[in-house]
Putative signal transduction protein with EFhand domain
Amino acid sequence: MFKRFITAGRRAVMVGGTSLMLVATAQATGLTSADTNQDGKISRAEANAAQDRAFTKLDTNGDGTVDEKEFDAGQPGLPADATEQDKQRRHQVIASWFKHMDANGDGKISRSEYRKALQPYFDRLDTNGDGYISKDELRAAFGNRGNDGGAKQ
């Protein structure tokens, strides 16, 4: 069970990563949350806006940075039957992503560090280079998780 969580967690981070939440949000809602103009695809501007919303949500104390505690609290939790090994693995994954995003090593992620860490994932998903992430590109990257692009388990 936890391996699925970690896989899903990596996907969300790598591309929510496109925003810590962009792809997870796009998959879960059939693009509607990130696709603010509802044209069926996510532009770079929409991805950046989704990243900004995700950062603001993570920054629970409103100081303009995200510390490791805030970052951890903003990630998916574990199932009720998680083992101690599952808990340790979750902590390791989250700590690794936090360290990756904290480019200057000050123990906080700034909005610019957050965006810089996530920006490459937009380009990876935009496989045809048209400046948009389509439903088809999401499906190709993450597999078809339901007809509406939503994640199903």
